[in-house]
């Protein structure tokens, strides 16, 4: 049986190599994952197709790249882009990216993936083993930056929306922790980033309480409105929900984002 000699995947936020098809997978094979955008109002993503075993994109072999454009303007993390890899029995690689919101799709067909000799493949695998610790540290740094950046983004968004629900002192404390975390990200100091995320999360507890209180109040309002509806009307509303639950299965969204173009 033919197998993939090396792993295949794409570059995601921070220059990380995200594998979709692992090395030694029997072909033909198919695999897809859902990704999102890395910035607000990002209307295009570049899909960089890679082959190799290293953790960072630039340390692997690029097989090709293409752009998916026309993604609707939305906050980061909202658009859903499905990336699919399909390797046929002849070893031809088909990679597609589809915006699930609009149905827009773009793809690339790699008819001759980089033909590597057995020696070259072994060399790449050995390099991945040799630099495993170094690569892991680099990946850990990128992931810490991504996590910190996501926390800064969500906290700033929550402050904008619910900041008036907490005291001036609490808001000032959150803003101070925000600035500390931003500085840690700027300095690329992993230990300070981890502590900064912990401190910001603690400082934001009161803000989170207010967000959940508001959500609970909205839910309670909806519940009362449903209770007031006629029993017949309720039964009609419930039927579609039951049929959906027995059929469709929600697809998992992978928590990884595309690198924004030009960054």
Describe, in plain words, how this protein is organized in 3D.
Helix 2 (132-162) runs antiparallel to helix 3 and helix 2 (132-162) runs parallel beside helix 4 (190-203). Strands 2-1-4-5 form a four-stranded antiparallel beta sheet, with no helix packed on it. The protein has a four-stranded antiparallel beta sheet with strand order 3-6-7-8, with no helix packed on it. Residues 230-256 have low confidence and may be disordered. The chain has 263 residues and is an alpha+beta fold. It is 45% helix and 21% strand. The chain folds into two domains: 8-130, Substrate Binding Domain Of DNAk, Chain A, domain 1; 136-243, Substrate Binding Domain Of Dnak, Chain:A, Domain 2 (Up-down Bundle), CATH 1.20.1270.10.
Question: Which properties best describe this structure?
Answer:
6 helices, 2 domains, alpha+beta, Substrate Binding Domain Of Dnak, Chain:A, Domain 2, 45% helix, four-stranded antiparallel β-sheet, 263 residues
């Amino acid at each position: 049986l033919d197998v993939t000699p090396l792993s295949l995947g794409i570059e995601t936020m921070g220059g990380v190599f995200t594998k979709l098809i692992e090395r030694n997978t029997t072909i033909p094979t198919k695999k897809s994952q859902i990704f999102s955008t890395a910035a607000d109002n990002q209307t295009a993503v570049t899909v960089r197709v890679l082959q190799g075993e290293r953790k960072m994109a630039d340390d692997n072999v690029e097989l090709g790249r293409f752009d998916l454009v026309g993604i609707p303007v939305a906050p980061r993390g909202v658009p859903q882009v499905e990336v699919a890899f399909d390797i046929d029995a002849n070893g031809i690689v088909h990679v597609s990216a589809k915006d699930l919101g609009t149905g827009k799709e773009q793809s690339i067909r790699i008819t001759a993936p980089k033909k590597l000799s057995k020696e070259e493949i072994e060399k790449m695998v050995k390099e991945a083993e040799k630099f495993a610790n170094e690569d892991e540290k680099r990946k850990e740094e990128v992931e810490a930056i991504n996590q910190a950046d996501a926390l800064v983004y969500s906290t700033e968004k929550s402050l904008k929306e619910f900041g008036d629900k907490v005291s001036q002192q609490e808001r000032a404390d959150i803003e101070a922790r925000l600035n500390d975390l931003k500085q840690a990200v700027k300095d690329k100091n992993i230990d300070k980033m981890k502590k900064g995320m912990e401190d910001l999360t603690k400082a934001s507890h009161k803000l989170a309480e207010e967000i959940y209180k508001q959500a609970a109040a909205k839910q309670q309002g909806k519940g009362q409105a449903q209770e007031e509806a006629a029993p017949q009307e309720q039964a009609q509303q419930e039927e579609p929900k039951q049929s959906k639950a027995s059929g469709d299965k929600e697809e998992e969204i992978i928590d990884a984002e595309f690198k924004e173009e030009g960054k």
